[in-house]
Specification:
This protein is α/β, with parallel strands linked by helices. It contains 11 helices and 12 strands. The strands form 2 sheets. It has a 10-stranded mixed sheet with strand order 2-1-3-12-11-4-5-10-8-9, with helices on both faces. Strand 6 (127-131) and strand 7 form a beta hairpin. Helix 1 (13-26) packs across helix 9, helix 7 (201-210) runs parallel beside helix 8 and helix 10 (289-304) crosses helix 11. It binds 1,4-dihydronicotinamide adenine dinucleotide.
Length: 329
């Protein structure tokens, strides 16, 4: 029996987490879920969007599965996601991107792993309003955080038989901050036999849409990592299939790349694949590799059989898609 935290989120969060829990349970994995809520819905009762009980639960259980939480745009509370990553020091955001069976995309053979620094850069939330017409955000990059994420990327690459790491910056313009990130990657790379390649983020985006197969592991600071991982999600069929994980020294939170998709929330249209792929990685992480593999096979056969949600051009509802996976386990 595993004790794990589930952060249910909002928008499509509850629909896709119910779907994923149903599939994991049908696969016979014994999990005692500590279900936690966060975001706008809890503010009225608890005063904050990320109550301490959520952090305590992840600290207790060490591993969490999380669905998206809405962040107000341009006003309101700070992102629950960013806060959680900071509180638990989940410094590495890992987003493997590869083609799924029978999901039509522009390119075949895409196999890219995005490693994004998760704790600093413009996401540190250091902003100030200077006057009515001027605001500024501080882009904070430190050597310790940059070396730590570079080491994570290289360790991951070695462990997973990848061929090289490409560090992505804008060090020609942000000479000090991105320069420090680049310098840290070079320093760490010297300890590994795998090569480090270097590219500027604008060129990287162009190369990704023209020839994604030239890339292997991408190492990026927080903001570029956020943007480039959505770009990579677009290469493999969109946000509905893009998995992710936030990993630190002591804790790990597995969650899809996508947000709460308010435009389709509550309509039984959401694709649970991204959340399910994240959950499969979580199962591997807790040693349930066999169940993870069975669920992945059932998912792939379902897609192969042409059962797909609307975002992938199909007609299956979230419930129909979920039941189809369960029947193929
Ligand atoms: P989004 O990822 O929620 O949606 C972008 C588009 O992709 C929408 O058209 C949506 O319908 C579609 N989409 C996303 N996931 C899908 C799925 N599973 N199945 C089918 N279609 C899907 O991005 P958006 O609209 O920019 O953000 C909405 C909210 O989510 C914002 O408040 C944002 O801050 C938050 N957000 C939360 C994240 C998290 O909790 N980790 C990550 C990204 C955004």
């Amino acid at each position: 029996m595993h004790n794990l935290t589930l952060i249910k989120g909002d928008g499509i969060g509850p629909e896709i987490s119910d779907a994923v829990l149903k599939i994991i349970s049908a696969a016979g994995v014994d999990i005692n879920w500590d279900i936690q809520t966060a975001g706008a819905d809890v503010i009225e009762a608890e005063g904050v969007p990320l109550p301490q009980r959520v952090i305590d639960s992840v600290k207790r259980n060490k591993v969490a599965l999380k669905s998206p939480v809405t962040t107000p745009i341009g006003k309101g509370f700070r992102s629950v996601n960013v806060q959680l990553r900071k509180e638990l020091d989940l410094y590495a955001n890992l987003r493997p991107c590869y083609n799924l069976p029978n999901v039509k995309t522009r390119y075949d053979g895409v196999d890219i792993v995005v490693v994004r620094e998760n704790t600093e850069d413009l996401y540190a939330g250091i902003e100030r309003q200077i006057d009515d017409d001027t605001a500024e955000s501080i882009k904070r990059i430190t050597r310790s955080a940059s070396e730590r994420i570079a080491k994570f990327a290289f360790d991951y690459a070695v462990k997973n038989n990848r061929k090289f790491v490409t560090v992505v910056t804008k060090a020609n313009i942000c000479k000090l901050s991105d320069g420090l990130f680049l310098d840290s990657a070079r320093k760490i790379a010297a300890d590994y036999y795998l090569p480090l390649k270097e590219i500027l983020v604008d060129n990287c985006c162009m190369q990704l849409v023209q020839n994604p197969n030239q890339f292997d592991v991408l190492l990026l600071p927080n903001l570029y990592g956020d943007i480039v991982s959505d770009l990579c999600a677009g290469l493999i069929g969109g946000l509905g299939v893009a998995q992710g994980a936030n990993i630190g020294k002591d804790y790990a939170v597995f969650e899809p790349v996508h947000g709460s998709a308010p435009d389709i929330a509550g309509q039984n249209k959401a694709n649970p694949t991204a959340m399910l792929m994240s959950a499969i990685e979580m199962l591997n992480y807790i040693g349930e590799n066999d169940a993870g593999q069975r669920i992945k096979s059932a998912l792939f056969i379902t897609l192969q059989d042409g059962i797909k949600t609307a975002d992938l051009g199909g007609i299956a509802s979230c419930t129909e898609f979920t039941n189809s996976i369960i029947s193929r386990l």
